[in-house]
Structures are given as C-alpha cells and as structure tokens.
TrEMBL record, chains A, B:
Region of interest (Disordered), ranges: 1-103, 198-218
Residue spans of biased composition, Pro residues class: 37-46
Domain PPM-type phosphatase: 104-498
GO molecular function: [pyruvate dehydrogenase (acetyl-transferring)]-phosphatase activity
Gene Ontology CC terms, in alphabetical order: mitochondrion
Organism taxonomic ancestry: Eukaryota, Metazoa, Chordata, Craniata, Vertebrata
Protein name: Protein phosphatase 1J isoform X1
Length: 505, 505
C-alpha cells in the first residue's frame, strides 16, 4: 500500500509545470470510477451527431453525445464544436441577439487546455417560480397568502473525474431548492416570526395563523427565535444534501460519474444567498470595495475537520492512512526519531517520536493547489464522488467529503447599488491566476468603457475576466501579459449586476 | 430521564434574576462531582486557620483551608478574610508597596455575590526561565546557543463546580509550558527554519546544525515550512492537554474538583501568544482601537462541533440525548407534527416530522448565557471536569469538552506602542456586563488621569474595570450607574501594558 500510494502521490505532485494541468481534480486514471461517462438524461444542447456536414468519425460522435454546454449559450452544432476545442480555447458567451439572461447577467466560459476531454464546468441561470403546497396548516388558503414566490438562481459547477455530476447538478439543483421552498411559501411572506411547529398533514385541524400552531406551554423559559432568512439557508443546505443523495441513488441507473464543486446564488425577497461547496469563489465589488461572499473548502482549510473524522472513525482510514499530519513523508529508516506533527486539535506544530503507524500515508498532505485528501482529491466539499476510491484500493473517499455548502447572506436592500456594483462568481480556473483586487480592477476598467445602461457591459466584463485568466498562446503555453502561465483549467464566470434587481423582477 | 433532565433544566433556566447567579457554571448540586473540595497541595496563601484572633467556628476554618488567592496579592490573614466576603465584595489588588508585577501589570479581582462559597477565579503572573535540555541533536552545546529562554506569563482561570481545577491550573500550567519549551530552546534561537526531524535521543550521532538533520530525499516534491511561531503555539496547545491529563490522573489522590476556563498570555521573543479555552476574553486596546485577541467557546459557538461528535459517537449520548437542535422543548403530544430543527451540518433551520427519539433532550439547548451542553454546563472548553456527569445519571460530559485553546499571536515588534496601549484580560464576570467599547473608554479615561510613567496606573485601570462591572449595592442587588444589574459573578482582570516590554526583559 505504501509504495502504491507513494507513487500515486509522486505522480500527483510532480505534475506541476507548463501548461499547467489543474491540480485540483483527482486525475482520472488514479481514481477508480467504476462507471463510464454517460449523462443521466439527454443533454439539452444539441448533440454533435446532429451537426450538419460534420465529418467526425463515429467514435468522436459517440463521445460528443455525452457533452453539453449550458442551454443559455444557444450553441449551434458548430458552436458546440468550437466550444469543445482545446487548441483554440474560444471564449463562449450567450449571443448578443435574442433573450438576455435575467438581470442582464454576464457570462463567459472557456474550455481547459487539454487536462480533460471536455469542459467539465457547467452553469445554470434561471428564474424559478415556487408554488406553495396546499396551505401548510391545512386550512383553505387565504387569497392574500396564495401568491407563490419567485427566486432568481445562478449556479456554477466545476466537475472533476468526469462531467456527469456537474451536468446533473446544473440541471437539477435549483429544482431541489424549489422543492424545499414549497413548504415555506406562506411562511416567508408572513411578516410574523416563523412557527416553530406545524401540524403533521395538510387537512388536519388547525389554524393558518402560525402563532396558534405552537402550544404556549414549554419547559424552556425561552424559545429560540428563528428568522425567515435562516429558513431559506436551511432550505438551500437541505437541497444540496438531497441533490447529493439523488446522485448516489441514480449513479447506477444514469451513470453519474465524478463529482463537482457547486457555487450557487439565490435571490429571494430582497436578499442574496451565496452557497458554496468547493473551491469556486464569489465576491461582491461595490463602489470599488471587495466583499468576500464565500470561502474555499480544501484539504488545507478543512484539515482539522478531516483529521477529527479520521481520529473518531479510524475504520475510515482502512489501516492505510494516519490522521496525523507531517510536514513531509517519513522514511522507514527514521523510525524512532522525532518528527514535527499536528493532530486534529492543533494549529501549531510539535515533535513526536516516530512510531510504526506514523509510516502510514497521511490523510491530508501537500500544500496549496497540491493538497490532497487520501492522496487523491483536492477539494473537500461538493456533490457526487460516490464512486471515488483511493488508487488501487477499495477505500472510499466520500465519507471525508461534505456536500453541505456554507451559505452567506447579503441584504440587497441595505445599500443603494449603482450599475457598477456586481457579484462575480468564478470557478477556480479564474481565481488560480487572478486575485480579488485584479478582478475589482477589471470591473472598473471594463464597466467604465460602457454606458451604465448598456446591458451588454456585464457580458463584456465576464469575457474580459475569462480572457485575462486564460491568456494567449505563446512559448508552448497559454501566457498572461506578465509572461506568467495563464490558467489551463476550465474557466467560467458569472457577472451579476446588483444595481437594480427590483426593476427586473 | 426526560422528566429528570427537564426539571434540572427548568431550574437552570429559571434561575435568572437579581442578584444574578452566574448561569455559566454547572450548579454544583446538579453536577455529580464525586469528590469533596480539597486542594491537591497546601495553597501558598496563608490558610485562615492561621489567622490570629479569629473567632470563626471550626467548620468555617476547615472550609477556608481549601481557599486561596493568588500569592502576588500578598494577602494577610485578615485580607484573605475580606477577599472572601460576599457581602462587602471589596476589590483586591497587589499592594502598592513592595514588588510590582512584571511589566507593571495591573490586576484586580472581586468575589461573587454569593453564587459559590469562595472566589473560584484564580490568577497567575510569572517570569519563567526555560533551560534547554541537553542539546537536542546530542552534540555538545555551543556556547552561543547555550542560553536559556525567558517567557512572561499571565493566566486567568475561571473555576466552576469547585475551585480545585482553577487553583491547580494557576499553579502548574506555566510549568507545563516551560516543560514543552525545553526542547525548543535551541531551535527558537536559531534563525534558520526549524528542523523537521530530530534524532531520537540526546547523545545519538548527529549534528547540531538543524539543516543537516533532515535527509534531502523525500517522495513529496515539497516540504511544508514550519515557523518558529507555530512551534510555540504547538507547545502551548500540548501544555494545555498535559495539564488536563494531570488533573485526570491526580483527581483521586489530590481531589481536584470541578473544572475551569483558562485564558493565558505568553510573551516570548517579541511575540504575544494569547491562548483561550473557555469564555474569558482578551482584547488589545491600541491607540483607542480594539483588537480582539480571543473568542469564547460556549455551547452556542461550538454547537456544530458538539453535534457532530454526538452524531459520530451516538454512544456518548447514552440514549438520553439527541444530537439534533430544536428551538424549544418538544411535547410528547406533538409527535408526528413538524418542528424546526438543525443538525450538525446546518446553520439554517428546516422542518422535520417529530419522531419518538426527537423527544430525547437536545445535546445543546438554550441561548446566550443560558445555553447548556447536556443540560449541565455552559462552557465547552477548559481544564478539568473529569468527574462531571449529567444530573442523576452516570453519563460523562467530559467527552464533549475540549481542553485545547485557540491561540492567537500578536507581534509586538510590528508596531510602536505607547504607554496607553494595553492588553486586557478578563473573566466572564467582566464581559457579561461590559462591552469591548466600554472597556476601551475606561482605558482612555483612567490612563489619561495618570502620568504615562506612573506604574500604578495599570492597577488603577484594572480596579476601575472590576468596579465598573461589579457596581454598588442598591435595591437588593449590585447595580451599575445606569441601574442595570452588575455582575454577581467572580470578576478578575489583568491589564498588561504593551508600551515597552523590551525595557522589562
């Protein structure tokens, strides 16, 4: 086992260089993904086989059938082929003609430089109507409360070890959120605090006045106050979990291969909810100021959670890994010497005498983009990965991954936004080579070149951000103006204007 | 079980009011603490039995024997009796005459208003010399590296369910830190990065040059860089754990009853390390600006850690508790209805159908100062509590408590400090009724009334802070000028001046 993992890791960590393959994704050959790539449903984009005049061989056509891009790109078969071209890496955006994305949202994407067969990022942008279920209290619905709710939705899904999970999430996650919100339609529109308890079944005796649903008798002197906002957060959290469970259920039938990071924005009743599971990132640029709206979940940022789990459930380590962290690999000849280590409780380092079981491979190792859980995967939250196992082993990695997002809330009504205030979402292809400050500078530079009421300015900005991260082909690689390497990863960017959502709803 | 815990909680949460007993400590009669109160060693302060002319009955004398105050207060027997007087609540400080505390540190304390027999806070302030062990590399010590290290140390220990743990920690925790640093004396004084690996035993062949101790061959492409600072953090973290383990070992022989929060400051080689386990607090006030140096660890702030542990190790819940959180106690008649809940993964709330096991008592319940783990204890980190069990049950609570501090580092050399810049440490008796801003205002008000070079100004400031939190007796309680209730808890405060540590070392 030791040699096996060691050689896998040696491969993983030595793969840096130009042009850079993304070190985040578990390299496919090393992760045992039992099922071949094929989407759970026919993708909405026209498959390449429909392309007229194509001379592509049958094999390519078959492979293309599993490949789709977001429907809002409205790609023709020829456009889809260009979007799938690793050599040209043409930036894709929705066409300037035709229906715009809600709020005049800007979007741009580009495929990777060859690290995976297709672009494994996916995106979704929808306006979703939520019709309430039959009155939750069972009483006939009052007309004033019978209104459904609308939410605006943006999602970026960065796939790894296959595109299936990202594609499935891009098609279905907002439906799960819609489903979770159905029970809340009345409650969220009622200004009084949410009822703590509801009758079991619609139709059961009860009043629709939530305040009557709770018996006043309680052995606690106080009741916790639960806000409307925290109900929406809970709905999004549970939707992520249900999406992940659906992937687990359907992976056999529909062959959902791989996993994905998910970065999702929901706008509902004046508030923006940013939910992140993975290493994508969201920032607001408001009047030039940067407001972080997410943080990344990686083996480094979640080290202590991972180590604690390995410590409490050592059976998950399969006798192959140690939950302790060491600053480098221990050599067998170093047995008995004293090495720096950290356990699940420590943020500092200390020396310990090396014992036999310390020679096991560390659960968490590496630094930065090369950090890995179980020598395999570089992100610790997201959807899917139910088949992911340690190289040449049956040890599952999924127990260490969390499907739960961190949700941050931004109240749009608390500040008067101008047309230059935007929420920028990007997959790690953007952020690996672009700092928050550089993004803010590009926001300023590009938007000031357009009239404030020109709706195409946000697409232009998204394109500028993608181009700035991709660079241009030069010296056997994609390079930025400063001659550093651009991102060889898939890059996807949403630019959501905050200055006037009210007028769009 | 349900009724038993419920009545215990009803007692706990209904005990608010004037004068307020501290809701943090588990009330002694409810926590099964098997051993009577008696110190592990003779306290350094003179016991009351030595008091001349005392007419106290034998019983009181015996109880007093277990009571001590910090030695630096230099209390006479009469002074000790006044410090133990719940009615007068006289503020105690080191005498103006005689040796000052290091750095002219200010200190003040006051006993509680009757919530426990004695003042269960303890404090320590020491200068500790660390002599290196025989050269870690085994080579003869070079003269230039043979110097030991000095660190300055301040500790506040807020006891609960008895004073034994706080007293033991105040006497010994800095010795554990000293012991942990012994191995690091050479390394911390060597400007090169710490060696990752050391030979096993002093005297073994090897060089004293740390860079030679590590074989260059490594299967990882890079080694993690470990800083000197993180070694000190690790030493403090491990010292807390070893202190806690010593309490567990000696609780039978020496009868260490109860537990304590620990807030500790170490100044070493230009940096201030603030380690906090519990709900005491440290802030720096620098040029009027507030810099938080700790955060509190309570059932609310650590809810998800506690719930995760209960979820992963359900046997720790003993079939009596549920790891789910509910906003109020569920009534048996509500079975089948839908109630708001949060699990270990959620920050938002959602509804779930109430099942039989949801009627168990929640692992975490209550809000603010009334929040409790297992209906018993209101702090989730600290030392001791090895005997603490759920009321009328054998279920131990210790597995849910962490002895590990969070350590924050402040580099004193990065900023030129003036004599008005201070680090303020206080037990929750201070912070329950005083905001950070109010403390900063008092810092400004008191220090500006003294000459900058008057060393008594920091003691005056500590006294003002304690008095401001205690208030004065009025309307059947201790009241603040705004007529709100003052703190009825023990209150202890250190004021550490930052403007010139160099001149004291």
């Amino acid at each position: 086992m030791l040699n096996r993992v060691r050689s896998a890791v040696a491969h993983l960590v030595s793969s840096g260089g130009a042009p850079p393959p993304s070190p985040k994704s578990p390299d496919l050959p090393k992760a045992t993904s039992a099922l071949p790539a094929a989407p759970p449903e026919a993708p909405r984009s026209p498959p390449a086989r429909a392309e007229r005049g194509s001379a592509a061989p049958a094999k390519t056509v078959e492979a293309r059938a599993s490949f789709s891009r977001p429907t809002f790109l409205q790609l023709s078969p020829g456009g889809l082929r260009r979007a799938d071209d690793h050599a040209g890496r043409a930036v894709q955006s929705p066409p300037d003609t035709g229906r715009r994305l809600p709020w005049s949202t800007g979007y741009a994407e580009v495929i990777n430089a060859g690290k995976s067969r297709h672009n494994e990022d996916q995106a979704c942008c929808e306006v979703v109507y939520v019709e309430g279920r039959k009155s939750v209290s069972g009483a006939p619905r009052e007309p004033s409360r019978g209104q459904g709710l609308c939410f605006y939705y943006w999602g970026l899904f960065d796939g790894h070890a296959g595109g299936g999970a990202a594609e499935m999430a891009s098609r279905l996650l907002h439906r799960h959120i819609q489903e979770q919100l159905k029970d809340l339609v009345e409650i969220l529109q009622d200004p009084s605090p949410p009822p703590l308890c509801l009758p079991s079944t619609p139709g059961a005796p009860g009043s629709s006045d939530p305040s009557h649903l709770v018996g006043p008798q309680s052995c606690w002197s106080s009741q916790k106050e639960v806000t409307h906002e925290s109900l929406v957060v809970g709905a999004i959290e549970n939707a992520f979990q249900l999406m992940d469970e659906q992937m687990a259920r359907e992976r056999r039938g529909h062959q959902v291969e791989g996993g994905c990071c998910a970065l999702v924005v929901v706008y509902l009743l004046g508030k923006v909810y940013v939910a992140n599971a993975g290493d994508s990132r969201a920032i607001i640029v408001r009047n030039g100021e940067i407001i972080p709206m997410s943080r990344e979940f990686t083996p480094e940022t979640e080290r202590q959670r991972l180590q604690l789990l390995g410590f409490l459930k050592p059976e998950l380590l399969g006798g192959e890994f140690t939950h302790l962290e060491f600053p480098r690999r221990i050599q067998p000849k170093e047995l008995g010497q004293r090495m720096l280590y950290r356990d699940q409780n420590m943020t500092g380092w200390a020396y310990k005498k090396i014992e036999l079981e310390d020679l096991r491979f560390p659960l968490v190792c590496g630094e930065g983009k090369k950090a890995r859980v179980m020598a395999t995967i570089g992100v610790t939250r997201g959807l899917g990965d139910h088949n992911l196992r340690v190289c040449s082993s049956t040890l599952p990695i999924k127990p260490f991954l969390s499907c739960f997002p961190e949700v941050r809330v931004y109240d749009l009504t608390q500040y008067e936004h101008c047309p230059d205030d935007v929420l920028v979402l990007g997959t790690d292809g953007l952020w690996d080579v672009t700092s928050d400050c550089e993004v803010a500078a590009t926001v300023d530079r590009v938007l000031s070149a357009y009239e404030p009421n020109d709706p195409s300015r946000y697409t232009a900005l998204a394109q500028a951000l993608v181009l700035g991260a991709r660079g241009t082909p030069r010296d056997r690689g994609w390079r930025l103006p400063n001659n550093k390497l651009g991102s060889g990863d898939d890059i996807s960017v949403f630019v959501i204007p905050l200055g006037g959502p009210g007028s769009y709803s």
